[in-house]
Amino acid sequence: MLPNGDHRLEQVKEALIAKGISAKRVDAIFHSKAAMYKETKVLEILNNINNIKKHRKREQQANKKMLLKKVLLKKHLKRYQTVYDKVEKDFKVNREIVAAILQKETALGAFKAYKHNALSVFTTMLTGLKPEKFKGRQHIRLKRFIQFAHKNLVALITFYELQGKDVLKADLRSSYAGAVGIPQFSPMHFDMIVSPYADGSIDLHDMPTAIYSTANLLKNRFKWDEKLRYYKIKDLDKVIDQWYEFDDGRSNFVYEKNLDGIKVPTFASHHKSDQSVTYVASYVKVLKRYNFSTAYALGILQIAKACREQ
Predict the structure, then answer these.
(1) How open is the CA angle 108-113-118, to the nearest 5 degrees?
(2) Which is more confident, 199 or 3?
(3) How many CA atoms lie within 13 A of 173 on its CB side?
(4) Mutual angle of helices 275-290 and 294-309, in 10-degree steps
(5) Which residues pair with residue 173 across a beta bridge?
(6) 102 near 182, Cβ under 8 Å?
(7) Which of 84, 170, 206, 244 has the fewest CB atoms lying closer than 10 Å?
(8) Helix or strand or coil: residue 252?
């Protein structure tokens, strides 16, 4: 039996066995100290729906700080020029976009103070969230996080175990959402990890791998269009100002529904006759697949644009 006999863990176990991992090994993983540890901070954050509004404000503040550090981004691009040359050649993804993502996620790898473990995070989500205690959007939202935890637990354990590696010995330092490494990948995207070198390390804490894998994810999972590589946004600040005037706290820049499937006002549709908005929206649509925050996506564009124009 799995810890607490939780039926959600049993479903994950069945999925892992179907992928070729033995029942004995799965039981050992879920009885481990990491899997049984309760990430109380994770539950606290996810159970408070008001954190959505706080996150939006923090993201905007972070964008302003990052714009002041464009010199660091330039130095980073120069240091890893060979890798970025390969990124643009192989994936047709702008180097400034990839670098801006890495800056937003972990300050180009400088931020390492993660207090969570991805295995602990996802087992906590899976067994600790109680959507039945809530109604409306929060009920839907918590059910979504449970599904998210299921997918990521299966992906996380499969990634290591089928390579003959012990997931319990892996470096799984993560954010409260279980994101790992310099580019902060969720485990369900670990299959996008790839080194720019034939004999390179497949490690998200390795900068060349982080750079190359981020471009791979954008191109081959999030459908980055080659046409986006030309990146000429003259009216970006104006469009961003228009967006914040439009946003009522529940709006979306480009998608007609939020992550919980609820229909929301859509900025791009409202301004569909404005070519500048349409152009920015083509980038936002892809970047929101990396992080569904509109402020995050617009921040990436601001940082990339400032770096390119410097």
Answers:
(1) 95
(2) 199
(3) 14
(4) 110
(5) 117
(6) yes
(7) 244
(8) strand
Name residues whose C-beta falls within 8 Å of residue 250's C-beta, 6 or more positions apart in sequence: 258, 264, 265
Cβ(254)–Cβ(281) below 8 Å:
yes
How confident is the model at residue 250, as a pLDDT? 87
Length of the chain: 310
For residue 33, give the H/E element and its range: helix 33-36
Structure tokens that stand for 234 in this block: 């003259």
Q: Is the pLDDT of residue 58 over 70?
A: yes
Helices (H) and strands (E) in the chain, counts: 15, 2
- The CA–CA distances, whole Å, from 211 to 13, 95, 185 equal 33, 9, 12
Sign of the Cα torsion 176, 182, 183, 185 reads negative
pTM over 0.90: yes
Question: Quick check: 49 and 138 in contact, CB under 8 A?
Answer: yes
- Cα dihedral sign, 289-293-298-303: negative
Contact 140/17 with Cβ under 8 angstroms? Answer: no
Checking if the pLDDT of 69 tops 90, the result is no
User: In this predicted structure, what is the pLDDT of residue 309?
Assistant: 78
How many Å apart are CA 249 and CA 242, to the nearest integer?
14
Q: What is the pLDDT of residue 112?
A: 82
For 89, counting Cβ atoms within 10 Å of its Cβ (0-12 exposed, 13-18 middle, 19+ buried), the class is: exposed
Higher pLDDT, 29 or 235: 29
Q: Which residues of 273-299 are buried (b: 16+ CB within 10 A; e: fewer)?
A: ebeebebbbebbbbbbbbbebbbbbbb
Torsion sign over Cα 220, 223, 227, 228:
negative
Handedness of CA 240, 246, 251, 252 (dihedral sign): negative
Average pLDDT on 117-130 reads 97
